[in-house]
């Protein structure tokens, strides 16, 4: 198993996942509700930043590897799934929205694995639609973890509950759209290999 700094960042992201969940189980005497929200949001943002940096550094330093390519999306999906489950438990997110997002991730991961096995992985490579969906998710989730007013200075305050919900709804819509887009790309192979006419 190769080990380098980008892979270390990916492992760090995995280690941070239980911390996002764990802060909500700390006694009230240790953290107030507001501080708990802030801690979870900050930890999630740090984890999300490692996602960007590990890929950037792996390409810049030419330290890409098959193991890193496997571990990175696994870490991403664990991070997002854990955060969504916390939000559902806190009644900040409808379970149906979480199911759409997590279900899509499972479906597309399975599709990519199958396409890789038949040598057609480039057909379902990540595109700009998937990246935009991910960006919406990664902004929405810490907003919903924060779940309150956020002062941006100059007297300007935004309600992260409202903006977070709108962004997660947009992410869910893009999730469905991108899933159908990837399925459409893969359909010729599915038809051919599955014997469908």
Description of the structure:
The structure is a single chain. The protein is mainly α. It has one domain (5-194): Four Helix Bundle (Hemerythrin (Met), subunit A) (Up-down Bundle), CATH 1.20.120. It contains six helices and two strands; from the N terminus they run αααααββα. The protein has helices at residues 5-22, 33-60, 66-89, 95-117, 128-146, 160-194; strands at residues 149-151, 157-159. The chain has a two-stranded antiparallel sheet. Helix 1 (5-22) runs antiparallel to helix 2 (33-60), helix 2 (33-60) runs antiparallel to helix 3 and helix 2 packs antiparallel against helix 5. The longest helix is centred in the C-terminal third of the chain and has 35 residues, at 160-194.
Count of helix runs: 6
Kindly report how far apart the N and C termini lie. Answer: 43 Å
Q: What share of the residues lie within helices?
A: over 70%
Largest sheet strand order = 1-2
Listing every helix as H and every strand as E from the N terminus to the C terminus, the arrangement reads HHHHHEEH
The CATH topology name reads: Four Helix Bundle (Hemerythrin (Met), subunit A)
- Per CATH, the architecture is Up-down Bundle
- Strand segment count: 2
Low-confidence stretches: none
Write a brief structural summary:
The protein is mostly helical and 197 residues long. It is 75% helix and 3% strand. A two-stranded antiparallel sheet has the order 1-2.
Main features:
single chain, about 200 residues, mainly alpha, Four Helix Bundle (Hemerythrin (Met), subunit A), two-stranded antiparallel sheet, globular
């Amino acid at each position: 198993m190769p080990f380098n700094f980008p892979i270390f960042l990916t492992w760090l992201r995995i280690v941070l996942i239980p911390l996002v969940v764990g802060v909500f189980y700390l006694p009230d005497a240790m953290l107030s509700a507001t501080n708990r929200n802030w801690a979870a949001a900050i930890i999630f943002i740090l984890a999300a930043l490692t996602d960007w940096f590990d890929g950037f550094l792996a390409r810049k330093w030419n330290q890409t590897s098959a193991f890193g390519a496997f571990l990175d999306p696994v870490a991403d999906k664990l991070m997002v799934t854990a955060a969504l489950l916390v939000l559902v438990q806190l009644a900040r997110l409808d379970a149906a929205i979480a199911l759409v997002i997590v279900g899509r991730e499972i479906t597309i991961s399975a599709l990519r694995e199958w396409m890789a096995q038949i040598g057609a992985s480039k057909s379902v490579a990540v595109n700009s639609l998937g990246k935009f969906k991910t960006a919406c998710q990664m902004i929405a989730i810490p907003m919903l973890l924060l779940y309150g007013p956020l002062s941006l200075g100059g007297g300007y305050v935004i309600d992260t509950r409202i903006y977070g919900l709108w962004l997660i709804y947009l992410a869910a819509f893009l999730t469905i759209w991108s899933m159908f887009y990837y399925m459409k790309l893969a359909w010729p192979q599915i038809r051919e290999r599955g014997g469908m006419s």
